[in-house]
Write a structure and sequence with these properties.
The protein is an all-alpha fold. The chain has one domain. It is built from 13 helices and 2 strands; from the N terminus they run ααααααααααββααα. The protein has a two-stranded antiparallel ribbon with strand order 1-2. A hairpin with a 2-residue loop joins strand 1 and strand 2. Helix 3 packs across helix 10, helix 5 packs antiparallel against helix 6 and helix 7 packs across helix 10. The two termini are 21 Å apart.
Length: 325
């Protein structure tokens, strides 16, 4: 007999999982305001990464005059900065949760150990595999997209926001970024679950049925090209160097935070910073559900939503049996 969902997981957040109220009818402006503000404050992944992006833009970012010409110095600066950020975020979270075990298994979704001595992984080790693909491919392609966008802005190929005149538009685009992230991720994610692409590309990421911080950006180079193509929207939507930096950091660094395997960081018994994404953890366990995120209910609309409850899991299993039949 199949396990119930309460037995299948060590920890589950409050269920059922809910999607944003943006598309509720009749409209619920109070709920929308609460969703937006609660997603950023008092402290959140988004706010932390925005702070990192601002600091990097001020002190570790080439100016547009430099970026007019491709040169080793400013490209190397971006690459080394991005590599250091990934090591700090993914490496720091891995050390906190999995090396020093400072939180034990509190708020951990799945207590199975990360895999060692398994030939399915590069170097026969899940963590080494994840670090290799994250750094060798992920950071390189992240930097390549950032170089492309900086060079394009500097040479007039990307519509520009100017500060302080366009500060309102900049704030609006930063706040709207999670909506675009959900839509873009759902579309490219469904594409790479097409069997030929899944076998050749996405299966590398799905080696991680149980995830750790290094798993988020552990992808095949083709998947990195698809995933980080999100930033190409700024050939149409106006941009600013700060927005480009935040856009790419949001997609890369939250991949690490959302795959921690833990609901978040505890201070005492209080959840201080939400991290792990149970909605996506369900996808890693069951593969054929939750292709998108919670900002836009694409999975609800397409029939692939799993809210974490037993009833939803039973419906998911029935749907999968029908599809395979």
């Amino acid at each position: 007999m199949a396990k119930s969902q309460s037995e299948a997981w060590h920890y589950r957040p409050e269920l059922p999982l809910g999607t944003s109220p943006y598309f509720a009818w009749p409209p619920r402006p109070g709920a929308i305001f609460k969703w937006v503000v609660g997603g950023w404050f008092p402290i959140s992944e988004k706010l932390v990464i925005l702070g990192i992006a601002v600091l990097c833009w001020l002190w570790l970012h080439p100016d547009l005059a430099q970026a007019e010409t491709l040169s080793f110095d400013w490209i190397a600066l971006l690459y080394l900065r991005n590599l250091a950020l990934m090591a700090l975020v993914a490496g720091g979270l891995h050390a906190y949760f999995y090396i020093f075990r400072l939180q034990g298994d509190r708020l951990r979704f799945d207590t199975r150990p990360l895999v060692r001595n398994n030939r399915a992984f590069t170097f026969n080790d899940q963590v080494r595999d994840n670090i290799f693909w994250t750094c060798a491919s992920g950071v390189t392609i992240w930097t390549a997209y950032e170089v492309l966008m900086m060079w394009s802005m500097a040479n007039g190929y990307v519509p520009m926001l100017t500060l302080p005149d366009d500060i309102g538009w900049l704030v609006l685009l930063i706040v709207a970024l999670p909506l675009w992230e959900t839509l873009h991720f759902f579309l490219i994610h469904r594409l790479i679950h097409w069997p030929p692409l899944y076998r050749r590309v996405h299966a590398l990421h799905h080696r991680n049925s149980n995830t750790g911080p290094w798993s988020g950006m552990s992808m095949h180079p083709v998947e990195h090209l698809f995933y980080l193509s999100t930033v190409l929207i700024h050939f149409v939507v106006p941009a600013h160097p700060l927005l480009i930096a935040f856009h790419l950091m949001y997609f890369t660094l939250t991949a690490a935070t959302s795959h921690t395997g833990y609901r978040g960081l505890l201070v005492g018994d209080r959840l201080w910073l939400k991290l792990g994404n149970f909605h996506h953890q369900l996808h890693h366990r069951y593969y054929e559900c939750n292709y998108g995120g919670l900002e836009i209910p694409m999975d609800r609309w397409s029939g692939s939503f799993h809210d974490g409850t037993d009833a939803s899991h039973a419906a998911f299993l029935q749907r999968r049996r029908q599809q395979r039949a």
